[in-house]
Amino acid sequence: MSDLIELSNVSKIYDGEASQTALAKVSLSIAAGQFVAVMGPSGSGKSTLLNMIAGLDKPTQGDVLVDSVRVNRLSEAALARYRRARLGFVFQFFNLLNQLTVLENVMLPAQLVGSRSQVARARARQLLDQLGIADKASAYPARLSGGQRQRVAIARALINQPVVLLADEPTGALDSHSGDSVMDLLAEIHRQGQTVVMVTHDARLASTYSSRVISLRDGRVVDDAALETRPIQAPSDLLHIRTGEIDL
């Protein structure tokens, strides 16, 4: 497997009344097809690391390379295009738009990259069907359970066929049963070839579902452990449609 994500000597220092080092000279690489869990106590730099990969924050020093794109050198407009075309996001609290239906929420990222409405609608319906919530297409998020809302969020994250799926505490707002169901779904997506980087505080989830666990403390990598390798399947219809590349 080739490296999809590379962080080289990345530091992030937030200025304030007292400077705070969120990341300190972190260097690591993530291969295409891995399921990586990032763990650590509060304030260890987990979310900052995810934000660097997403281009939501820029390092004070160092370089971030994702899918051959040097993320930290992109303009704000190019960063927006990079996130829409190459990344999928799954958040702890879903971040769905309550005024849109489930189908409209899932379609939105595809429409933002210029996909035709008919194509986006067909892709969204396909994903909802494969994630087991096709019957909720016309419902509004407020009418769904937490587990259902997270499945909608995963469908939305996958619609543009991202090179990497970023998940920030994806089970943090769910009960244990719903959380395990969502993790089973992420594991299945990973087995079909999707690269996943997940921040979690739950050691059980990290050891059960991921293929590698990176542990942070005080902004530094203190452990990086490969777990039992899980077979990767050939891409299925779940990961079949790509909306196309964009000019960065």
Could you explain the architecture of this structure?
With 248 residues, this protein is of the alpha/beta class. The chain has a single domain, classed as Rossmann fold (3-Layer(aba) Sandwich), CATH 3.40.50. It has helices at residues 46-54, 76-86, 102-112, 117-130, 146-158, 176-191, 203-209, and strands spanning 3-14, 20-31, 35-39, 61-66, 69-70, 87-90, 164-168, 195-199, 212-217, 220-226. The strands form two sheets. A six-stranded mixed beta sheet has the order 6-7-8-3-9-10, with helices on both faces. β4 and β5 (69-70) form a beta hairpin.
Task: Describe what is shown at a glance.
33% of the residues lie in helices and 26% in strands. With 248 residues, it is α/β, with parallel strands linked by helices. Strand 1 and strand 2 form a beta hairpin.
